[in-house]
Design a protein that fits this description.
548 residues; alpha/beta
């Protein structure tokens, strides 16, 4: 190998890091329309913006054109600047954007244009919070934007790429600034059309800007299209109480699904509801056990209207569980999970989906839903269950449990465990026989099978299965524990002690094998052995065994 071959230079590493800092391209979501609705815009520029943002009008028109590429594709619409007024004086002692927006509304009631935009000075330190960068009425005709220059961002990039030419650093900085300009303009425009924030990170309607944002969600596009269709003519005041979707969402957030149903059901029946309206009605109906059939019909329609939202299949999964249809629940839960994993960022619905997978005894599905979920106390019980179950199975399941066969096996195993826990040992054994062939000899399956045979009184079969299991999986404390119990039940105390001793040698802290072995030692009059085992546990794990 030649000298230095394979070594990465400082400039190579910095160039890779700089490439990661480059933003993704904001794009449209459908083919460009042949006809386009023009939204006329009058722009007011305050003195500070004009002073701090060089060639501000050219920057503004370039910013609008970049945004129009997305708007033409998503909405068949575009912004059209009809006038730029420089020298807007709005500052009255309150520098906040809310004050600027109120001043803009007072300055220009938008009697002859669709929108009025105010440009104000940049922040000294740019924040990722969209509403520190821009503000709009929802819905409305007015919005304000700050300048998007960020000297601190340039300084960070420069320091992290000091071995690279200045031109490379500037190219990435300007790409980031253009992305921020375009994203904030699109975000605030969406608010004027009635769109709200979404919880999924890295979409244009997240509450915080990310240079990884590339698009609006499908639901946001539907809200914007509906807002555009229903937008009152120029010169007409826009009421903020006419957005049924927003009102229905507020009802649901306040725990009043019956009010959301009353609001949206007539619109759905008259085929005037949006995709978001169908989804919200689906969500509301799924909270009523008495509305299962109606919920399924509405949710199926919502799933067609909103192909990117996990809410309709999630509601269908919940309804199927209420109807004790586990197969359908599994199908719809998998569809909801696929939609969650198909969108960037974390989903607000992961905790609910994880709970459904928990009810289905699907460990892999629960883990994936948790990983795609926002941090939430609501999912803690599912996360704890998944963690403990995974930890218990990890050393005993052959192969990769995240394969399709592995997922099937874990579902079978957990469902069989449920039957075991309620004393249905014959049903538990029947379920275990349906496990995929590659897992028939896994430690987890053999351990549960042996335990079920033991509880069912089939001691000879239990001993055979446990012996086979300990030969295949000598590190499984569960198998040694169950084999010890079988020997004890058959009156062979010495064989039971030997099996439990093997189990204690490989067991984790607090495993059931320890107290059972101590109990048998004491029953056999071997007190010193019992005390020594307690001390051994203390030395290995830093604490003694629980008393009793």
């Amino acid at each position: 190998m030649g000298a230095g071959c394979g070594l990465r230079t400082r400039s190579t590493i910095q160039r890779e890091h700089l490439a990661q800092a480059r933003p993704l391209v904001i794009s449209g979501q459908t083919e460009t329309a042949t006809t386009t609705t023009a939204l006329t815009v009058r722009v007011y520029v305050d003195d500070e913006h004009a002073r701090q943002v060089g060639d501000f009008e050219a920057r503004l028109r370039a910013q609008v054109e970049r945004a129009n590429r997305t708007l033409r594709a998503a909405l068949d619409a575009e912004l059209q600047i009809v006038e730029v007024r420089v020298g807007w004086s709005w500052f009255t002692g309150n520098p906040g954007l809310e004050a600027a927006l109120a001043a803009l509304e007072h300055q220009d009631p938008a009697a002859d244009v669709d929108l009025v935009l105010g440009l104000v000075s940049p922040l000294a330190l740019t924040s990722p919070d969209y509403h520190q960068l821009g503000l709009a009425r929802q819905p409305g005709r007015h919005f304000v934007l700050r300048g998007m220059d960020d000297p601190e961002d340039l300084e960070r990039l420069t320091q992290s790429a000091d071995a690279l030419p200045r031109t490379e650093v500037l190219a990435v900085y300007h790409a980031r600034r253009k992305h921020r300009e375009t994203a904030v303009l699109l975000h605030e425009l969406a608010h004027t059309l009635g769109a709200s924030h979404v919880e999924a990170q890295e979409t244009l309607m997240s509450s915080a800007h990310s240079h990884r944002s590339t698009r609006f969600s499908m639901e946001t596009v539907e809200v914007m299209r509906r807002g555009l269709r229903r937008r009152p003519p120029v010169g007409t005041t826009i009421s903020r109480e006419t957005n049924e979707d927003e009102r229905a969402r507020r009802f649901l957030d306040r725990g009043r699904p019956e009010d959301a149903i009353a609001l949206l059901a007539p619109l759905v029946e008259a085929e005037r509801a949006s995709a978001v309206g169908h989804t919200l009605l689906c969500e509301a109906l799924s909270q009523d056990p008495a509305a299962t059939s109606r919920s399924r019909a509405v949710c199926s329609k919502a799933a067609e209207f909103a192909p990117g939202s996990p809410l309709p299949p999630l509601a269908l999964a919940r309804a199927a569980l209420l109807a004790h249809d586990r197969e359908s629940a599994q199908h719809h839960a998998d569809a909801a999970l696929a939609r969650m994993l198909g969108t960037s960022g974390l989903s607000p619905h992961g905790a609910a989906l994880a709970s459904i997978y928990r009810a289905l005894f699907d460990l892999v599905g629960a883990e994936k839903a948790i990983s795609a979920s926002e941090a939430s106390e609501a999912r803690d019980h599912v996360a704890a269950w998944a963690h403990s179950t995974r930890e218990r199975l990890e050393a005993e399941v052959l192969g990769d449990a995240n394969t399709d066969a592995g997922r099937v096996f874990i579902r079978v195993l957990l469902a069989a465990e449920e039957q075991y826990s309620v004393g249905a040992y014959a049903e538990c054994l029947r379920m275990l026989r349906t496990a995929p062939k590659r897992y028939l000899d896994s430690g987890a399956k053999l351990s549960l099978e042996c335990a079920a045979l033991h509880r069912a009184g089939r001691l000879k079969d239990a001993e055979r299965v446990c012996r086979d299991g300990t030969k295949r999986h000598p590190a499984s404390a569960n198998l040694w524990l169950t084999l010890g119990r079988v020997h004890a039940a058959r009156g062979n105390i010495q064989a039971a002690l030997r099996a439990l001793e093997r189990g204690a040698a490989v067991a984790s802290e607090g495993h059931e094998v320890f107290p059972l072995l101590i109990q048998l030692y004491r029953a056999a009059g071997r007190t010193e052995k019992a005390d020594a085992l307690d001390e051994l546990h203390r030395q290995r794990f830093g604490r003694g065994l629980p008393s009793g």
